[in-house]
């Protein structure tokens, strides 16, 4: 049996119809983008693959793998096997992260970190003889703290997108596997490989591939080889920003000579296996530790189950109407309150609110009984925020529920939400249009609208304008980030669009909603 694994890199592009894909870890697939790089060569850039994991015992290198969350590493099932029939497993597995040179005691820009493996999960259908269902997960003893040299790769959780991923032709492979010299590489090496017809693999291997395997290689004999097993086959997924590196395959097996053709486990075929182990393992740890303004923002919070709704569903998104005209956007934050910006909201004219994907019939509108603008709101420059109180309460469903905010009375929870928001360099701007959301990058507030002598305060956030022409961002449009909480597909609100210019490259200024939780809590209590 020949083991195969990735020893090289490549970039392809996957276009996701609904915008930002639903990913296993919100901080995935982004690199530091610096360090030496050989454009047309073999060595990988120093910080180009922060998700790479070196799997070893106390005495020997075993396989490669990828960090996919703060506590799980993805690899091939055969990497756990000490005997050829897998009746005997490797004891005392260790995962080393932040590795570029596997034989160096210290990396040039950082130290690597070791994590003991406490539990291994191998597909119950794994067949060691045929090398099918060759996938495994390793649970680490302690959680990983992300940094520039240690970050997860993206795993796409929506199995409905498998047909889209099956259309990707170009991939990246990477690893420390055997080189042309016959020796394992000390440093990470990368190469481009292309999807091949499975019949080509079948002709070389003398057996047919299954639907859960990918055949890939190149015409110049580039291939994964021994020592690369468990490593990734990945491609770039466009998300409205610069894109995220997303794993679609795991190095599994190949021909004896390692020349130009390899077999990879198709990760999208095992989404349920990954979700069941990774997400369910987090439910008991995460659910008791979060204190929210309204727990209805989660997908069946008590059971930790995920709603079966489309990826681009924002059930808290609101349009504020004056007669038949939209004057502002906003978000539902509880049964009776919508949060929006204050600038365009009249106080003496009747208003009504329409939510999410519902039709615009008279029965779907919610009348506004009271408008509460921030008492210190004077102009767009400061405190541009308002609460709209609804005449009747909203009955929650999968398609209509509030966005998540921390409890206004829990300062520690508020600090956690604010810290995560401050650390996020990319957030999701949600508007209206064919493609309603777009990843946007943070802009330095000291450089935002300086030419207009406009000072951006600490209760405001400056973000780039969405690059997508099919997404509308208007007053009150929400700025959000995914909320990792058990199995829920939820978002937390970070900001509301306050002002910007119509010019293409001008930034947008958002009200920092998390700075107003005390005021929000006071109004809602009334």
From TrEMBL:
Keywords for this protein: Disulfide bond, Hydrolase, Membrane, Protease, Serine protease, Signal, Transmembrane
Coiled coil: none
InterPro entries per record: Peptidase_S1_PA, Peptidase_S1_PA_chymotrypsin, Peptidase_S1A, Ser/Thr_Proteases_Immune/Dev, Trypsin_dom, TRYPSIN_HIS, TRYPSIN_SER
Pfam family, one: Trypsin
Keyword Signal part of the UniProt annotation: yes
Span of domain Peptidase S1: 38-279, 302-525
Signal sequence annotation: 1-21
Alphabetized PROSITE patterns for the sequence: TRYPSIN_DOM, TRYPSIN_HIS, TRYPSIN_SER
Keyword field contains Glycosyltransferase: no
Biological process according to GO: protein maturation; proteolysis
One of the record's GO molecular function terms: serine-type endopeptidase activity
Lineage top rank: taxon: Eukaryota
Homology family: Belongs to the peptidase S1 family. CLIP subfamily.
Protein's recorded name: Transmembrane protease serine 9
Source species: Drosophila suzukii
């Amino acid at each position: 049996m020949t083991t195969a694994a990735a020893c090289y890199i490549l970039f392809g592009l996957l276009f996701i119809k609904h915008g930002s894909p639903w990913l296993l870890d919100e901080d995935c697939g982004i690199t530091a983008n610096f360090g030496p790089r050989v454009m047309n060569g073999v060595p990988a850039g120093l910080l180009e693959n922060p998700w790479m994991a070196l799997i070893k015992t106390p005495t020997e290198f075993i396989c490669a793998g990828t960090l996919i969350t703060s506590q799980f590493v993805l690899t091939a099932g055969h990497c756990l096997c000490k005997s050829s029939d897998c009746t005997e497993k490797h004891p005392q597995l260790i995962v080393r992260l932040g590795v570029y040179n596997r034989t160096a005691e210290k990396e040039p820009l950082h130290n690597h970190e070791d994590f003991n493996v406490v539990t291994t999960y191998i597909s119950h259908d794994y067949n060691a003889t045929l090398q099918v269902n060759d996938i495994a997960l390793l649970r680490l003893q302690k959680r990983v703290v992300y940094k520039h040299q240690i970050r997860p790769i993206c795993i796409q959780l929506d199995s409905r997108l498998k047909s889209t991923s099956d259309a990707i032709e170009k991939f990246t492979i990477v690893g420390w596997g055997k080189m042309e010299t016959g020796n394992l590489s000390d440093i990470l090496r990368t190469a481009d490989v292309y999807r091949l017809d499975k019949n080509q693999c079948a002709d070389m291997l003398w057996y047919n591939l299954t639907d859960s395997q990918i055949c890939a290689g190149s015409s110049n004999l580039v291939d994964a080889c021994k020592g690369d097993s468990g490593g990734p086959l990945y491609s770039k997924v466009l998300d409205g920003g610069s894109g995220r590196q997303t794993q679609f395959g795991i190095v599994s097996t190949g021909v004896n000579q390692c020349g130009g053709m390899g077999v990879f486990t198709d990760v999208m075929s095992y989404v349920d296996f990954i979700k069941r182990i990774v997400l369910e393992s987090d439910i008991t740890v995460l659910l008791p530790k979060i204190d929210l303004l309204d727990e209805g923002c989660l997908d069946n919070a008590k059971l930790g189950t995920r709603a079966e709704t489309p990826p681009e569903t924002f059930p808290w998104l609101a349009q504020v109407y004056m007669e038949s005209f939209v004057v502002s956007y906003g978000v539902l934050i509880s049964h009776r309150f919508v949060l929006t910006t204050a600038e365009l909201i009249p106080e003496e004219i009747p208003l009504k609110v329409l939510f999410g994907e519902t039709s615009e019939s008279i029965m779907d509108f919610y009348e506004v009984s009271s408008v509460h603008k921030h008492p210190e709101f004077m102009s767009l420059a400061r405190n541009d925020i308002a609460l709209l109180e609804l005449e009747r309460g909203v009955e929650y469903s999968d398609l209509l529920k509030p966005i998540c905010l921390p409890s206004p009375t829990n300062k520690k929870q508020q600090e956690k939400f604010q810290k995560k928001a401050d650390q996020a360099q990319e957030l999701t701007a949600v508007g209206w249009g064919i493609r309603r959301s777009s990843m946007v990058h943070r802009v330095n507030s000291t450089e935002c609208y300086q030419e207009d002598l406009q000072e951006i305060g600490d209760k405001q956030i400056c973000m780039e304008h969405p690059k997508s022409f099919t997404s509308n961002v208007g007053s009150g449009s929400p700025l959000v980030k995914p909320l990792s909480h058990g199995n829920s597909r939820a978002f937390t609100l970070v900001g509301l669009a306050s002002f910007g210019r119509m010019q293409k490259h001008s930034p947008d200024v958002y009200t920092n909603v998390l700075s107003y939780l005390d005021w929000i809590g006071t109004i809602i209590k009334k």
